[in-house]
Design goal:
Number of helices: 15
Helix content: 40-55%
Largest sheet: 6 strands, mixed
Distance between the termini: 86 Å
Radius of gyration: 42 Å
Number of strands: 12
Shape: extended
Amino acid sequence: MKKFFQEIKADIKFKSAGPGQKLTESVGERAPKEKPNQPAVRQPRQGPTNEAQMAAAAALARLEQKQPKARGPTSQESIRNQVRKELRAEATVSGSTEAPGTNMVPEPREEGSAHLAVPGVCFTCPLTGATLRKDQRDAHIKEAILSHFSTDPVAASIMKIHTFNRDRDKVKLGVDTIAKYLDNICLHPEEEKYRKIKLQNKVFQERINCLEGTHEFFEAIGFQKALLPVPDQEGPEEFYVLSEAAVAEPQSLQRHKDQLLVAEPVRATLARQRRVFRPSPMASQFDLPGDFFNLTAEEIKREQRLRSEAVERLSVLRTKAMREREEQRELRKYTYTLLRVRLPDGCLLQGTFYARERVGALYAFVREALQSDWLPFDLLASGGQKLSEEDSLAFNECGLVPSALLTFSWDAAVLDDIRAAGAEPNSSILKPELLAAIEKLS
């Protein structure tokens, strides 16, 4: 039996050894056999994959870290050069133009109005009617106020006082002081002392001189600068002196004073950027620009303060009402919101709003776009929640920030009247000029 297994093993060794090999020969005694001179058909190599290129680049990086740059050529450097040559050759064969070991990163797509629900937050100048970006509004309003001096210097100076000075408390104090000067003149027109204002007076310096536009206002209503002598003082001082023509018209002084007291800062109003889109399955998708998420310095400080307060509250057990208040506070960090209203015919009416505006502003916006703006209607949020026009809630308090899709619904009585008249409830209700400018939501 043992001999039988030995014969089987010998037969297996003979077959696996190949032609011309003796079983008694050791490995060292074997002589290399000459291969037949046949031309080898070389298969074209495939281009390296991204993974292979990355692995090669990583290997090269490790070799470069281990081998100092100052040393002369070594075998490792030869290997690296050979690897580089092979990789370049393979890249050329595969038709790839990218460098070995690198991945092509697609360039970021530039934000364009064709891909955004709205190009950005825009404003309207109340003086010129121009549409402005956020970074343009302040400079444009200042330029418009300054150009208004040529037509109405009194109104322009009043706008400058209220608009150019940011500290509202200082503005109120200065305006009240100017009004007191004018009241004294109107109450005592014969008294010469009330028609003169000393420019170096402490009250004038602290309350009026520090405000932009006050000097222009005094000169516009009839005051003129003059050097007058001062009792018990050697040299003269500068005064504002009211002209005789202005003294003869006290009604004008009273009117200018009233204008100064009731004036408000000139601020650009938020442009609704109203747009109408055809029915689209993408109605609930909002691609918003950065304007809807950027925070000003004041908003960042407020957010930091709120976060600090939140950290302190983490150690305290919170009730459901406390958690709800924190959720509402989180929503208040948005300044703007983009709202869409799905109309009965499926069209979408879109507009931009402040996040702190009331729901009534959306009702007014929709009503301006309707042919029959006197008919009552309802607006439904997600989940069928009805928003009341008389409700004082803001959009951020309703969870409608930074964007939301709402549904237009006819009032029940109106819907019955429409059906009784044989009309189609889902027909178009927008004004013709809006339908003519309808767009496709991309």
